[in-house]
Amino acid sequence: MSDETDVGVPGAASVTGAGEGPGGVAAGVAPAVRVRNLVVGFGPKDGADPVLNGVSFEVAPGECLAIVGESGSGKSVTARSLLGLAGDNAWVRADELSLAGSDVQNLSEAQWRRRRGRDVGLVVQDALVSLDPLRPVGREIADSLRLHTRLDAAARHTRVLEALERVGLPDAGNAMRKRSGELSGGQRQRALIAAAIALDPPLLIADEPTTALDVTVQAQILDLLATLKRAGTGILLISHDLAVVGRIADRIAVLCDGRIVEQGPADEVLTRPRHPVTRTMIAAIPVDKPRGLRLNPRAAEPVLPSLSYQSGVAPGSSPDDCDRDTSPTTVLEAIGLVKRFTRPDGSEQLAVDSVSFRLERGTTLGIVGESGSGKTTSARLALALTRPDAGEVRVLGQAFSAVPEKERRALRPHLGAVYQDALSSFDPRLSVEQVLRDAVAGGARRTGRVGASAGAADRLRVLGLLEAVGLPQGLLGRRPLSLSGGQRQRVSIARALASGPQILICDEPVSSLDVTVQAQVLDLLDELQRNLGLSLLFISHDLGVIQHVSDQVAVMLDGRIVETGATARVFAAPEHPYTQALLGAVPRIGF
Amino acid sequence: MAEVARVAPVARAARVVLARLGGAAFVLWMVATLTFFAVRLIPGDPAEAILGGPGSQTSPEALAAVRAEYGLDQPVLVQYLAQLGRLITGDLGRSYALNQDVAPLLIGQLGGTLLLAVLALGVAWLLALGLATWSSRGGRVAWTVGSGLEIVAAALPHFWLATALIVLFSVWLGWLPPISTPGAAGLVLPVLTLAVPLAGFLGQIMRESLLTALESPFVLSARARGESELGVRWVHAIRHASLPAISLSGWAFGSLISGAVVVETIFARPGLGRTLLNAVTVRDVPVVVGAVLIVAVGYILMTLLTDLAQRIADPRLRAR
């Protein structure tokens, strides 16, 4: 591949002309993108199964088409193929593949470069890493102009300011000098969108543009995309979440295993889904689903009642088995917790500010809040992994945070923890069996059971754990890296259950999962809770998930609990303005 | 409005500088102490060394006179404190063997060694960047070749490489002088000898981080904007790839100075390294201590420069 042309591209004049006004696009004449029978594969041509197999769609100017599918369905490959960036070892075939009305099949690399950014813009997930962290965002935005126009530096500066103002970034002059790490999540996503629309491309591809964002920021970004759409940009929105795309998509295409299984107007697909895959995805959305209702109707087998892994440890399965005469009904209590952190510049930040809550036996307390609200710090305080500056945590009616770790250790088996990033919570060199055996053996050491007979008993309990979380025994020899996201989270739930806990603390346990996988994991947690009498402290930024799983809910803002109460009451009649704002931003399908 | 906001950063910067200076003074004191006692641990009588070494016939009177002159008849602690006092006033003492003041002697040698080290560092960076960039573009074969070259280069000992370069360029081709003559031609082989192993080392680090940068989402964004392969590397990836190599350059400079001992000796090039080697051989304590102190100062300065370069290359560090 040669690099003979970088700047001063021919045809740049027409681009600047088109940039004068968004309405000036040749609307109605040519679709922003048209794809017929797109086939994409990796490796030797016609060798392996193609990743995309006969995908067809088009996006008109001013229209939004959403492509929805689970991870691995081929969504991102579709996006990249439209930019000629499918990959070095990928092959792309289509009956038609055209951008802004002109054919882009068999373009050379240099020809592709002239198209990218001009005929099509790309916005990807998490702008923290999608904008160069070492460069000011203004420079990143100006790059499109530098590559495709002959504008001088001053004119580029003006255009960058315009682009930033179009995406609604306040104080654009200041913002353009900042780097992605100095901007908030929503601001950087806006900056990334500004970089993609700097040249007013007729097509904007947004690949999971809101997945890493808080719910209120997500709503703002979706509104921004809707504004761009009204101004004439064609938008190809790619997501795993039907509820999210429902907010702005005109049409929806459901992608499964490299094929579009259903395509049609958005309300039709959302309210009268024809294909089973679509139905599963809609059923998986937790918003407004009452507690206990299964989110995943396809796999409705109950967890086996014979929870053999419980043998040998004090089971947490029924309340009466506690080694106390009167088992308290409050299993976990936080009283006036305060935690301060020192910022790098020496100032202090109140991460958690007089937080109190009670978790009652057999129920779920949901803590909801946006990033930085103090949810995770609260979880760490509850687990006594962080020492509170004030206040205390009590477990099963006994002092927990206030006593030395040596005394806490006796209570630790009653607490299990499940984290967001299951992968990094495993030692990558250990197999699933080793992970679970370690967890089981930890429990055995505490109960003083050692010796040769323990090995066979441990093995039995490992198998019991696997069964309880619905994983086949064949996975025992696998390492965490070779598991899917849902399988990993199941293993980490099994690990948390190994000591036979009564309390499970789940910190964003499903937020890195696709909606359908999320549904399966939520169903599993619900079953485990009912069968084992578990009490759950469930932390999430996702109100839909919290609404579905919680009996009680606490809303956190800037380290404080601003509203708390029974889930049904809080969601039906929110009192605090912040709760009202959060609920207003939740994407839901209007039935 | 910026005036108000800058006061705090300036105060913070002053604190950082003071802490750094304190740290540097501590390091220099430790270096002076360790060298003082390390040289005392070498068996033999320093007074004999002053009078021409153990082989020379010296009268007990002469030895006693020398001991009194250099304070060698004092207890070790007194000698140590006396030397520290002299060092603080900038007096590095008199060489036993050369009968010259140490400070001017070493400063005269410093320029040549510094030139050698700085040039070698520069050449190593260029070689490493070139190799890393090339091998990340050319597919699997270039990758393997680049990686192999780097490993071999990093493993080459200076004395072997120097000999091989002399045989190739001086004996067979006759292009360059085998000993370091004044002028540019005399510098080429010594600089290459020092630069090639370092380039292999830096290149390995750069190529790893270059690969990471090239696979990162911001590079995908740049490509989606129409950036060329060259542009992606030049505008984005090289900077990310350089960060770990920059932070290692302070250390690399230290290794260059120790490499200079070997290289200056082989190429018969005057410099700090060769002076140090000679001084150790004849137990010339003041020269050894002085040379080691000067190297330590250079090392500290280089670490400061590295930090500064890192802050320029990585704006995220400036916020702290």
TrEMBL record, chain A:
In terms of CDD domains, this protein maps to: ABC_NikE_OppD_transporters
Task: Give every ABC transporter domain span.
Answer: 33-282, 332-583
| Entry keyword set | ATP-binding, Nucleotide-binding, Transport
Coiled-coil intervals = none
Q: Name one GO molecular function term.
A: ATP binding
Query: One matching Pfam family, short form?
Result: oligo_HPY
**Matching InterPro entries, A to Z?**
AAA+_ATPase, ABC_transp_ATP-bind, ABC_transporter-like_ATP-bd, ABC_transporter-like_CS, Oligopep_ABC_C, P-loop_NTPase
Q: Which domain of life is it from?
A: Bacteria
- Give the start-end ranges of region Disordered: 1-21
**What family classification does the UniProt entry report for this protein?**
Belongs to the ABC transporter superfamily.
Name of this chain's protein:
ABC transporter ATP-binding protein
Q: Which organism is it from?
A: Cryobacterium breve
